[in-house]
Each structure stands twice: as C-alpha cells, then as structure tokens.
Amino acid sequence: MSQQEVTGLFSWVRFFTQEPTGVLTLSITVAIVVVTVLYVLRPKPPKIDPEAEEREKERQRREEEKKAEQKKAQQQASKKAKKLLLHQPKEEFKHPLLYTTLKMNQETVASVAFNPKGKYIATLAKDKTLRLIPTQLFKEANPHHQRVNIEHDFGLKSCFSNDGHFLYVLLNSKNRIAAYNLKAGGDKIIVSITKEWPLKDQHKDDIRSMTLSENNKFIITVSEDDNLVTLWNTSTGSVLHHFKTNKLKTYQADVSHDTDSKFFAIATYAPEVLIYEVKSNQTSKTAKDKAGNQNWEFSKVEKVMSLMKGGHSTSVYCVSFGPAPDPYIGAGKPHKVATGSKDGTWKIWDINVRYKDGEDPKCILTQKIDSPARFISMSPDGNVLVTVSEDNKLRIWGVETGDLLDTVDEINIYGINEGKTSLSWMTDSKLFAVNCGKMVRLFQN
Fold this sequence. Notes:
- By secondary structure, the chain is an alpha+beta fold.
- It contains 3 helices and 28 strands.
- The strands form 7 sheets. A 4-stranded antiparallel sheet has the order 1-28-27-26, with no helix packed on it. The protein has a 4-stranded antiparallel sheet with strand order 2-3-4-5, with no helix packed on it. A 4-stranded antiparallel sheet has the order 6-7-8-9, with no helix packed on it.
- Strand 3 and strand 4 form a beta hairpin.
- The protein is elongated.
- The N and C termini lie far apart (124 Å).
- The relative contact order is 0.09.
C-alpha cells in the first residue's frame, strides 16, 4: 500500500472517530455488513418433496387411527368389566340380630309402621305404594302381600291408631294427611281413605316430624325451618293448637304413652327439650262415645318442663318417650324420656317430678356415641334403646345400665341427616323394623 493510500485511510478513520456524524455512519455501515453476512450465511430451507410430505401425513393419520382404536378397546373393556361386576352376586348383608330383609319395593322406602296387633307391617315407598306384609310371611323369599297404589303421590310418614283401624299417612306433593281405614275383608284388608286435610294453611315448610297420640285424639306435626308445631284433631282434621318454638330450628316431636297422652316433647336447635302438657276436659272416666272411646275434649297446651339442667351442650336432634308408669302401682317409678344430640351423646331423663311445684326433671343416665345422634327410639317395654347416628351406624343399648349391646355397621338407613329415618317396634318389643334404601330390615331384640 502506498504512502498516499495509508494517509487517506487514516484520514477516514479520524473522520469516523472524531466527528459525531462519522461515528453514526460507521455504526450503520457495520450493521449493514453484519446483516448482509448473516443473510448470506443463513441455513437454506430443505427442498420440499411433495411425495415425502404426503407420506408423513399418511403416517400421522395412521397413528391417530391406532390411538382411537386403542381408546375404544379400553372403553369396551371397562364397560365389560363393569357389567361383569354388576352381575356378580353382592355380598349379602349379615348380622346376628338380623331377622329378615323385605325387598318388595322398586323405589326408596320412606316409612315403616307395625300394626299394633302385630299382624302385619305397613310400608310407604316412592314408587307410590302402600304395602301391607303379613308378619307370618316375613321369612319367605317373596312374601305375598297386599299392594295399594297411592294415586299421583307417595307417602312420607305414617302412624297407626292404637286399635289398628286407621293408618295416618303424610302425603308428599299434596302436603296433606290422609286417614286410611283398614278393615278385615276375608283374605285381604279393605283399604279406603275416610278423610284428608291440608297442611299448607299452617305449615309453609316441609314436615320434619309427625306423631300420633296414644289416645288417638290428635296428631302433632313439626316443620323445621319455620319452627311451627301444630296439633290436629284426628276426627275432623281441624287445628286444635299451634305455636312456634322460636328456637331457630325444630326437629322432632314425640307423645307420651300414657292413656291420656298427657305430655309431648319437642327437640330443637337449642340444647334443651321442651315438655308440654295437653290439658283436656273429660266428662267422666267412664263416659264413652259411640265408638267406645273415652270422651275427650281438648282444652289447652302448656309448657311445663324443660330438659336442660345437666343436659346436652348443643342441638338436640331427637327424643323418645319410654313407657309411662302405671298411675296406680307405678308411684315413684321414673317416667323416662330419651334424647339424642349433636354433641355425640344420648341421655335418659326422669320427668316423674313435682313440676307444678317447680321441680326440674332429672338426667339419670348419659352415654357417649362419638357421633351426632340423629334418631332415637325406646322399645315399648322400656328395656332397650336404638340410636342411629351420622356415622351410618345403628346401635342398641341397655336402658338401665347404658351398656352398648350391639352395633350394626354401614346399615345405609335412608335420610339419616334429614330426619327421614323410620323405625317401628312390634308392641311386644321382640322385633323392630327400619327403612334401608329400597329395603326394610327387621332386627330381633
């Protein structure tokens, strides 16, 4: 390179490094050079072969078809396995105290009730049927029974009159009580509705509890959310008395088993049970009406006791009266009431106290369940107590000692937490029946 060329080159360098415009020009020049080099050196895209592209698409399509076939085969195998499982014989429910299981219904059994004379049991189911199954046929595989269709409705709760001539049924959609008259007619029972009365004028909410008095004179209905308690005249269907407990929620009512049906108890959201006295006007102890029943005229209802002192720590879900002491030879004997609570305990109370003088009922026994007690029932002889709790267990207890006599696990009783459990005793206390889904299980005591 000549001296003149070197001198010219240095002149250009000085220009680019000393002048602002020169730096900018140099930068742009370098950038253009770099971009040009990168463009020239970029990887060349492969030439597209139409046949190769078609082969790749065909390969992908076959893979998708293979995956779809595998998925379909897996689904078919799963369905076949489920079908085989369904057709396998299910393990039969067994328990030492299980007497038999009645399986006539196609839908859920809502209520069970033994005829007071022990001749048959009445079931109500969501298949819109009332079934009467004779007790002597309980052990048969498919016992012959009488089916009565309930038109356009189904029964939720039921209770027999003391003489067994009437079955009172709480109808679901009609929200009314129907009185079914049951008469012997040769080989079958003649069933007819003698009267119905609506509840909607009183109860705006669903009925949680329905119970019949021992003297057959009145029915008590309870609705949970509106806290309404109503006493109905069984002869006319008219309202004898109604009131609100004002306890946020009201769960259940039960009536004492004395001939006068003197008391009834109400279980509420509060940690107490309210005891009311039903006062009546009776012309005389010997006066009878045309049907042969003692004359009875409702007078009023008064709250007379509260099961609270030494009681539960939270809501009481259920209550059950034991047998009333004989008024002549039972003086001084306890009149027992059983209660079950959300606190996981059940208690026995004695209400045979001088309540008119301000004496409180006494809690005489407490037992722990370790699960909220949703249902409780004392046997007619007062010796045994049955509880159903949220852990899906039925427990059998001794009333005198509180000892746990037996437990039935995973019994699958219908509607435990919604107050839909239905349990009925034979009057001799030898059997009790409970609704378990589409079946009725009977247990020996």
